[in-house]
Design goal:
Blueprint (H helix, E strand, L loop, with lengths): L1 H18 L8 E5 L2 E4 H14 L10 H27 L7 H29 L5 H14 L4 H22 L6 H21 L4 H7 L5 E2 L3 E10 L2 H13 L2 H28 L4 H8 L12 E4 L7 H8 L11 E3 L2 E10 L3 E2 L2 H31 L2 E3 L2 H29 L1
Antiparallel strand pairs: 1-2, 1-9, 3-8, 4-5, 4-7, 6-7
Helix pairs in contact: 1-3, 1-6, 2-3, 3-6, 3-13, 3-14, 4-5, 4-6, 7-13, 9-10
Length: 417
């Protein structure tokens, strides 16, 4: 729970610009010294996280989940205000001329980006508008979408103050060499266990580009040129596969492969003529949309791979780095595969990942330290919360939802009779 609250504490500050600022006189759900959290801001934030987490609020069984989320969000919103109140106490809202200039620059950048995007959309939908009419529509739409300069000012000022408070109270937090080594050992063991038990995918972890702490046996890194199908053919293959008609699917796949065979052979001939130009040919001919996202290629496992079995077989038929396959057929088309590297099993060298381990460990230590401090400040400040407001609100919402579900079920039962 503490880790979740630490994450929300930072994230909620970023949401304030999306949902506006609390207004004096508006119904509030929390008060921290003279700062307020409005009930409407709280509900907007709850809506955002409910949507982000994929909670189905049209199902009455989600009530407990939403109630727990509401409790966590309220705690986090209060802690965020506590930090900003501490910033006021320390005089951090007295900005330097340089800070004021940066805040104004950031505001202008947001307003300009919003205006440009909104104006382009309105022009496309209403090409005959005069300049004055266009400006009026853009101004109105910007206000509707929350592009309000003072709201952005509050957001950037609060963000800067939050960062200054965080930096001030965490700058002396450190981690020792022994702690870094212990964390490295833990991460290596955790990675090895997760890959062995199948709770994590080494292929996915390697593809996403995060720090690899342990490499299991039986993996290779490859690049490939894909001579793929057109969108219509791919759609038809997907539909046949989804329908479960294996015979029709295989027949159509063979037909589709035959249609692009000549093109694939032409590319292969160019590769075989001069294998050193593989990267250039891959850029020119490959239909793989992932190539630009994964310039180092793909890591493929011999067992439990997420890639098609024919592709995996083609990868492991290659013997040495630099070897290039012939045409390898798959449901995506034809692949021409080059073996880049045979990965060695074992833990990552400590020195290679030490900086990553140290940075992550220090950030965690700083975050935990700051969270504990925030809780201490909360105890020292005049803080009032009114959780009964969201409890009553959600109780009423789910009571109505349950009534609708009951009515719908009764109508269905009557219709069946």
């Amino acid at each position: 729970m503490k880790r979740i609250l630490c994450i929300l504490l930072c994230a909620l500050l970023c949401l304030s610009v999306l949902f506006g600022c609390s207004n004096q006189g508006e119904e509030i759900i929390a008060r921290v010294e003279e700062r307020q959290v409005s009930f409407s801001d709280f509900l907007d934030t709850l809506d955002y996280y409910v949507y982000y987490m994929g909670v189905d609020t049209q199902d009455s069984s989600s009530k407990e989940t939403v109630m727990q989320l509401a409790e966590t969000i309220l705690q986090s919103m209060v802690l965020s205000e506590v930090v900003l109140a501490k910033g006021e106490e320390l005089g951090y809202y007295e900005f330097s001329e340089e800070e004021k200039s940066q805040i104004q620059s950031d505001i202008q950048a947001e307003m300009d980006a919003g205006r440009e995007s909104i104006e382009a959309t309105i022009k496309e939908e209403n090409p005959d508008l005069s300049e004055e009419e266009l400006k009026t529509k853009v101004d109105l739409e910007m206000a509707t979408q929350g592009y309000i300069e003072e709201d952005f000012r509050t957001y950037f000022e609060d963000s800067l103050v939050y960062d200054k408070v965080y930096a001030h109270f965490t700058e002396d937090v450190t981690v020792s060499e022994e702690e870094i080594q212990a964390e490295y050992d833990r991460l290596v063991e955790e990675a090895q266990t997760s890959y062995l038990e199948g709770t994590s995918s080494f292929e996915d972890d390697a593809l996403l580009g995060g720090t690899i702490y342990y490499t299991p046996a039986g993996y290779r890194r490859v690049k490939h040129i894909l001579i793929g199908f057109d969108s219509g053919t791919s759609t038809q293959l997907n539909e046949l596969s989804a329908a479960g008609d294996e015979e029709a699917y295989q027949a159509y796949l063979e037909e589709a492969l035959a249609a692009i065979r000549s093109e694939a052979e032409g590319v292969l001939a160019q590769v075989n003529a001069d294998g050193s130009n593989f990267a250039e040919l891959m850029e020119t001919y490959s239909d793989d949309p992932g190539a630009s996202y994964y310039p180092d290629g793909y890591v493929v496992g011999q067992e439990n791979s997420t890639y098609h079995e024919s592709f995996v077989e083609g990868v492991f038929a290659l013997e040495n780095p630099g070897d290039i396959s012939g045409l390898v057929a798959s449901p995506s088309g034809y692949h021409i595969i080059r073996l880049e590297e045979i990965l060695q099993e074992g833990a990552a060298a400590y020195e290679d990942v030490k900086e990553s381990v140290s940075t992550s460990l220090l950030e965690t230590r700083q975050s935990d330290t700051f969270y504990d401090l925030s809780e201490t400040w909360q105890e020292e400040m005049d803080v009032k919360t009114y959780p009964e407001k969201y409890q009553v609100y959600l109780d009423n919402y789910y009571a109505e939802l349950e009534a609708e579900e009951t009515s719908s079920a009764e109508k269905s039962a009557s219709a069946e009779e």
